[in-house]
Amino acid sequence: MEFGVFIACILIGVTVLGVLAVSIMGIYLLVSSSFQKYAPPVRSSGKLKNAVLEDVAKQLQIASVGQQVVDLGSGWGTLLIPLAKRFPEHKFVGIERAFTPFYVSLFRARKLPNLTFVRKDFFEYDLRKTDIVMMFLIGFMMPKVTKKCLKELPKGAKVYASRFALTDIKADREVNLGDNMSVYFVYEIKS
Q: Are 139 and 86 members of one domain?
């Protein structure tokens, strides 16, 4: 075998191993930061996402300027980015714990001054100045999320919970788009 071919084979092998190592590390970062005690980052589905976005948009159109909208577990930013573009007069905050979705969201929102992403556990984020909360979470988290919302949100705040309802509180509205996976619940905090 010629020396040049030998070197080319080594370089190709090292490149393949490097790509494989980076891929495995990326998957590890995504999984390890999400599955420990939280739901994995899931991209919100088309019709459900669009219905929630339109519902929240209607609320923002009639609201006073400067409303704060928080997405608990904001993932890839698919709910907040379109709203922040459409309503520059309001403030939007995404709370995401997972490494990869957080940095992807941060990059995607870099030109939106009214949108901030915070990398932390959303149970540690203070909701007392929040007007609207959105969430696309998973069932086992809802009892703890319910307690947080009832304890911290001010009277009159709205909660939009996709797919899974808050516990121990009746929704003001339940919107079913035709199947069990396409449902969201709207709450207004009474006290």
A: yes
